[in-house]
Amino acid sequence: MVQFILGGGWVMFVLIALAIPLLVAAATFAKTASPQGLSVIRTLTAAMIFMAIGGVTSDLASVGHHVADNPDWLKDALPYILQGFAESMAPAVLAFPLLSIAWILVAFGVRRMPK
Predict the structure, then answer these.
(1) Is the pTM of this model over 0.85?
(2) Nearest to 105 by CA among 17, 32, 14, 18
(3) Staple 7 to which of 16, 26, 87, 107, CB 3.0 to 4.6 Å?
(4) What residues of the chain score a pLDDT lower than 50?
């Protein structure tokens, strides 16, 4: 797990920092079904999506930069590119399941809301 987080870069820590209040807000909403809670959940969701996309793109840019700067890697670049691509997906792999869990909790809250 540590290697997974390190592979994704600094953005992983930001995603975790966003996920904690999002999951707390979603759990609270599932329990109370208060419409005011949805605005916080929507905002944190947007922030996580944008951060995940930004993390993936910055990680991919970093892989391209490092492979292009290393002449030895350019001789047989495919393994380095594939490994870099796999590590670059870490922000999305972390963010989207957490967002799914949060919105499953929201679904329970919506079900409990009065008509």
Answers:
(1) yes
(2) 32
(3) 87
(4) none
